[in-house]
Every structure is written in C-alpha cells, then in structure tokens.
Amino acid sequence: MNVHSKGLAPVLSSSSAAASETADARTGEILAAARQAFAEKGFDGASMQDLARAAGMSVGNFYRYFPSKAAIVQALIALDIEDMARDFEPVFASDDPIEAMRQQVRVRLVQHQCNHDGALWAEITATALRKPEIGLACGLMETTIAGYLIQAFAAATGFSLEQARTRFAAHAALMVMLVKSSAMMPQKDEQLRHDLNAMILRIIDQTLDEIAASGAKG
Description:
Arc Repressor Mutant, subunit A; mainly alpha; 9 helices; Homeodomain-like_sf; TetR family transcriptional regulator; 2 domains; transcription; HTH_TetR; transcription regulation; disordered N terminus; globular; Tetracycline Repressor, domain 2
C-alpha cells in the first residue's frame, strides 16, 4: 500500500496544482466580470443576480464563489494588493528608490484613470463607512500600500524601518490619499483632469524630495 501511495503522490500533487490553477483562473474571470458589472450599474445598483449573469453563471453557483458583495470587494482588493506588491519590486531593487517611485506613481495615475473604475472605488469607499467588513478591506489596502512606501523610504534614506515609520508615516498616508483621489477624479473635463494630475504629481514630488533630503541630512 505504501509503495502505491508513493507512486501516486506526484500525480495527485500535480492534479491538485492544476485544479488550483483552474479555480484561480475562473475566480479571476468572475472578478473581472463583476468589476465590469459594477462599472456599468454601480456598486449599489448591481444585484448579485446581475453579477452572476455577467459571469455567465447561475446565482446558486455564483454564491459558491462569493456569498456577498463584501466578499467580492475583499477579493478585488486582494488582487490590487498583489499588483501593488509587483509594482514595488523594481522600487526595492533600484539603486535610487525615490526616482523609481516617482516613475511608478506616474504609471499608476494613468492606469487608474484609464481603467475608468474611479467611480466604482468612490462608491466602495462610501459603502465602507456603513459596512465594517468592507471598511476593514479598504483599510487593509491603504495600510499595506503605506507599509510598502515606508519600506521604500527606509531603503532610500538609510533609516531603519522603525525610524522611517516614525518619520514618514504622514508622508506615506498623504501619497496614498493623493493617488486614491486621482483615481476618483471626474473624467468629463480633460483639461481639469490634466491640471489636477500636474498638481498631484507636484505635491508627490515635493514629498519625495523632502524624504530624500531628510536621508541626506541624517
């Protein structure tokens, strides 16, 4: 029996991995469909039936993946956190983390606005005020991003992580707030959006310059 078990183990492990990848891919497809449905109908306007229909599923099957809108939001935020982690990899690896961060911020501003999902996140942010489970998920995203920023600030200045957290927590929170606000910016007036983007980037550049100077003085 043990011999047969050993022989089957790699096959079972391989099958399990393939099944997991298939499930992850399907979950990603469902989340993409849900994001599109939210964009079209609004977060409050899209019912679970609408979301199931958008994913090409029965409502009962949809609930097996996501039992509530809060669960969908949590999954969307988890994906965004994964994307953000990948964005910070070149920042941490760079010889000049501050300059690398400037470039990433500019890319993120454009991506957020081109995705046209700012209205969705504005609705989700408003919903977070009255639904604690969504509020916790949104808070986790902001604190995670702020943590990445502080880690990059520590690398850029030579301060320890704890010193960087003490010195630059407000700087990180400001940058998170500015990038988040830019995503929710109205899309109708292109010139206004352009001018606001320029102001946001100017403030972020000044913030990063202040951090870099602080490290040089230290």
